[in-house]
Specification:
It contains 11 helices and 19 strands. It is an alpha+beta fold. It has 3 domains: 10-101, Rossmann fold; 130-185, Dna Ligase, domain 1; 189-375, D-amino Acid Aminotransferase, Chain A, domain 1 (2-Layer Sandwich). Helix content is 28%, strand content 27%. The longest helix has 18 residues, at 230-247. Helix 1 links the parallel strand 1 and strand 2.
């Protein structure tokens, strides 16, 4: 195994291994192929989205040290498509196989659950919502907010909105055995924002802010520009850059923020991998979030992304029914020349399942995207 400490180019690109075989992994593979590299994927099944594009699929269990070590030894560098792995296990496998992992598990371990994440953010001087760890029902307070599982939640799963102490107690009794829990006081916000940043040992590259629009805890669409002042954009970039420098590792991190009614930024959550809100970069920018992530991980030069359009809407294609999914039928339904569609190679649709996304630009792109939501059968 090479140590991959120097930049690679051309045919000398390292083989990258990805933990996870979902759609994020699929799009990472596609991006690295465009750069001329090869990717192996560790999946728990033989038919995930990335299995269709990876140079090699290895079926294994990322929670087992032996499976991790065996996979690590097949590649030069490892990265990941989600943060739900045990950072200590990833680090141990890295040491035993002598294969580096980016982001470094010892660094993303600082933010791998919501409690350690918020404590790290506070230590970096970044604003977060008031929160505390719930160790027993006696800790619950009579205030609106959210009970959250510290680890494992996404798309609204593991997050429970409560109005008062009675509601919090009812939720707590259901989830108290599921792991560490925190309570986060509600934030009166007017916008939800997202910012993508990519780093290596020398620099941090930051994408423009986008606004995210949620529906039942799941992102429904993303809009650019975010509709905030230049000062807010500058503040967000500075806060995120400080965090990235504090983490001091290669790879991409996504940050979700609130903009309060009085124009203050509150950092909500982060993820150490490409993010749903960054899918808009695949058509909006001359370098997508996936390309820059793989460039960083591989030790290549990162690119400063430049917008190709003045505005754009990204629409998540969520399943509207349960049953077989016909990709071509959906493509025919869209029929919009000023759009880019990416489907996730999933054969079965389920209600609310992410089946793909569409980027829409040009005149009235927001209205056209909303009409697609109304009429598409996914």
């Amino acid at each position: 195994m090479s140590d991959n400490n120097t930049p690679h180019s051309g045919t000398d690109l390292p083989v990258i291994g990805i933990l996870g075989d979902g759609q994020l992994s699929m799009m990472m593979v596609d991006a690295y192929h465009e750069l001329g590299g090869r990717v192996y994927v560790l999946g728990e099944t033989a038919d995930g989205p990335a299995s269709h594009v990876a140079d090699r699929l290895i079926v294994g269990d990322p929670s087992k040290l032996k499976d991790l070590i065996d996979f690590y030894r097949e590649v030069d560098i490892v990265t990941l498509e989600n943060e739900f792995y045990d950072s200590r296990l990833l680090s141990q496998a890295s040491v035993e196989s002598e294969t580096p992992v980016y982001p470094d598990p010892n660094r993303f371990g600082l933010i791998e659950d919501k409690l350690s994440e918020k404590r790290f953010f506070e230590n970096q001087g970044v604003n977060v919502a008031d929160f505390f760890e719930v160790l027993s029902e006696d800790d619950l307070v009579d205030a609106p907010g959210y009970l959250k599982l510290a680890k494992g939640g996404y798309d609204g799963i593991g997050t429970y909105k409560v109005k008062n102490k009675d509601a919090a107690l009812a939720v707590y009794k259901k989830i108290e055995s599921a792991g560490a829990i925190l309570f986060e006081h509600a934030v009166d916000f007017k916008k939800e924002l997202s910012l993508i940043a990519v780093a290596n040992e020398q620099e941090v590259v930051v994408y423009p802010l986008v606004e995210t629009h949620q529906e039942d805890g799941t992102c429904r669409y993303v809009s650019y520009p975010a509709g905030v002042s230049a000062d807010i954009e500058k503040d967000a970039r500075e806060q995120v850059t400080a965090i990235m420098k504090g983490l001091n590792t290669r790879g991409l991190f996504a940050f979700e923020l609130f903009l309060t009614q009085d124009e203050q930024l509150i950092l909500n959550e982060s993820a150490p991998r490409p993010h749903n809100s960054g899918h808009i970069t695949m058509d909006l920018m001359d370098c997508s979030q996936f390309e820059n992530h793989m460039r960083s991980v591989a030790g290549m030069t990162m690119l400063t992304p430049k917008p190709l359009y003045s505005s754009m809407t990204m629409l998540n294609l969520l399943g509207t029914r349960d049953g077989a999914f016909e990709e071509q039928t959906l493509i025919d339904q869209v029929n919009d020349p000023e759009s880019g569609i990416t489907l996730y190679r999933k054969l079965q649709s389920r209600v609310k399942r992410k089946m793909g996304h569409i980027n829409v630009w040009g005149d009235q792109h927001r209205e056209r995207a909303e009409k697609l939501v109304e009429r598409l059968e996914v």
